[in-house]
Design goal:
Heat Shock Protein 90, five-stranded mixed beta sheet, two-stranded antiparallel ribbon, 25% strand
C-alpha cells in the first residue's frame, strides 16, 4: 500500500511538471543488461527466456539512470508477467538514427485488445479480464510514459502479428558536448 501511495505522489509531481532529472551520459547497453540480469531468477521460475539483442555502435545517451532503469524494470516485469512458459521476452536495442535510440521490449503474451491500446498508459488503467501471474496497480505504465516524455522521448505499444505485445521507447541521444574550461 505504501509503494502505491508513493507512486501516486510521484506521478502527481511529474504531471505537475515537477520532475527532477539527474542527467548524465550512460551506455544504454549496460543499463539494459544490468536491468535484465535482475530478472534472471524470476524468468527461470516462470520458465520464460530472456534475450538481449543490440545493434552495433549504439551511442551513449543522456538520461537519468535511476528513472530510466525503473522504466525498463516496469516493462520487463510486465512482459514476464504476461509471457507464457516456454516463450521468450526479448529486449532489442536499436539506433534508428545518429540522434536517437530505440528500446523494444517484446513478449508472447495475450497482447492488448485494440480498443485499449490508447488507454494503456493512463493512470490506474488495466485491461479488463486480462490474466497475468501477478496483479499490478495500474500505475507502472503511467510512470513509464511520464519519465520517457520528461527525457523528450516517446513510448508506444503495439500488438505483434503472431501474438504478444511490443513496447517501444525512443530516446534522443543528446550526447553531451565537451564543455570549454574557464
Amino acid at each position: 500500500m505504501l509503494a502505491m501511495v508513493e507512486s501516486i505522489l510521484e506521478i502527481n509531481r511529474m504531471e505537475s511538471g515537477k520532475i527532477d532529472l539527474s542527467i548524465a551520459n550512460f551506455d544504454i547497453r549496460i543499463l539494459v543488461q544490468e536491468t535484465m540480469s535482475e530478472f534472471d531468477i524470476l524468468a527461470r521460475d516462470y520458465e520464460v527466456g530472456l534475450t538481449f539483442i543490440s545493434d552495433d555502435g549504439i551511442p551513449q545517451v543522456r538520461l537519468d539512470k535511476d528513472k530510466i532503469q525503473r522504466v525498463l524494470h516496469n516493462l520487463i516485469d510486465n512482459a514476464l508477467k504476461f509471457c507464457p512458459a516456454g516463450e521468450d521476452v526479448t529486449v532489442k536495442l536499436k539506433s534508428p538514427s545518429p540522434d536517437q535510440i530505440a528500446i523494444h521490449i517484446l513478449d508472447r503474451g495475450p497482447g492488448i485488445p485494440e480498443q485499449y491500446l490508447n488507454q494503456i498508459f493512463d493512470r490506474f488503467f488495466q485491461v479488463p479480464g486480462s490474466s497475468s501471474r501477478r496483479r499490478g496497480t495500474g500505475l507502472g505504465l503511467t510512470y513509464c510514459r511520464l519519465v520517457v516524455e520528461a527525457h523528450n522521448g516517446s513510448i508506444r505499444v503495439e500488438n505483434r502479428p503472431k501474438g504478444g505485445s511490443e513496447f517501444v521507447i525512443t530516446l534522443p541521444t543528446m550526447i553531451q558536448k565537451k564543455e570549454a574550461k574557464n
